[in-house]
Write a structure and sequence with these properties.
about 250 residues, RNA Polymerase Alpha Subunit, Chain A, domain 2, 2 domains, six-stranded mixed barrel, four-stranded mixed sheet, 13 strands, about 25% helix
Length: about 250
């Protein structure tokens, strides 16, 4: 499995924010700016504001969430990571955004997206199996210079009933996966849906020409059975009607 090359440079512009508090943040949003903060490293936490429309556009890019960003603040530039975004419950509006400064000599933890490839040529693709992407991102630890834009998962050898685990991935040099208790979670698996499997089992057991319970009956046979039932009902009702009418005629003559 091949890892991705280094990600392209992602940058944005921020402005120093002087006023703090809910009221100030609300007024700031009305002017088309989103409040935020940058912290970590050797500097003190600093409140900032970012153009809201530019921020919304940047958040649509995958790399903005998983790569090191260059933030221009005044006359200086800083390398930061996006750490948290607070969105409005029902409006497409950023309420607050957090960035963390990057220390080039200190390892960072980051969630890196997984890109799945070659699923269409895998042995599982030629069957009724479904390839399920159990994980879509992987928590990794590395130095900032080694952080990949994404990790590619090769599905070309995945067969029915098999799974690809985190331990099966080939990570870039200097990058290690962060898992709980040394476990190796499933990344992708190929399974046959239960309904399809049950149908195939029934088809293999039933003899040719046998009628399976719940199977549709041919239209011609249904019509014949309906006609036979109708004739039987008609024959039963005819004597009853004649017997009922006979006494009525005798009374009329009297």
């Amino acid at each position: 499995m091949q890892q991705s090359p280094q990600p392209p440079q992602q940058s944005f512009t921020a402005f120093a924010r002087e006023r703090e508090g809910r009221g100030a943040s609300r007024r700031l949003r009305l002017t088309g700016r989103a409040p935020g903060i940058v912290y970590g490293g050797d500097g003190k936490p600093q409140t900032i504001e970012v153009d809201h429309n530019a921020l919304i556009y940047a958040l649509k890019r995958e790399a903005f969430h998983s790569t090191i960003l260059t933030m221009t603040l005044g006359e200086t530039t800083q390398r930061v990571l996006l750490r948290d975004v607070q969105m409005h419950p029902f409006r497409h509006e950023v309420l607050h955004i957090d960035f963390q400064r990057v220390d080039e000599n200190r390892k960072i933890r980051m969630k890196v997206p997984l890109h799945f490839a070659n699923g269409e040529i895998s042995p599982a693709a030629s069957t009724d199996a479904i390839i399920s992407h159990v994980l879509t991102e992987l928590d990794v630890s590395c130095l900032p210079k080694d952080l990949p834009a994404f990790i590619e998962v090769d599905l070309s050898t995945l067969a029915v009933g098999q799974s690809i685990h985190v331990s099966d991935l080939t990570l870039p040099a200097g990058v290690t996966a962060v898992t709980r208790g040394g476990e190796s979670p499933v990344v992708a698996t190929a399974i046959v849906p239960r309904v399809i499997a049950e149908v195939e089992e029934v088809a293999a057991v039933v003899e040719p020409g046998a009628v399976v319970e719940g199977a549709p009956v041919e239209a011609g046979k249904e019509g014949e059975k309906a006609a036979e039932k109708g004739a039987e009902k008609g024959a039963e009702k005819a004597p009853e009607k004649s017997a009922e009418k006979a006494p009525a005629k005798k009374d009329a003559k009297k």
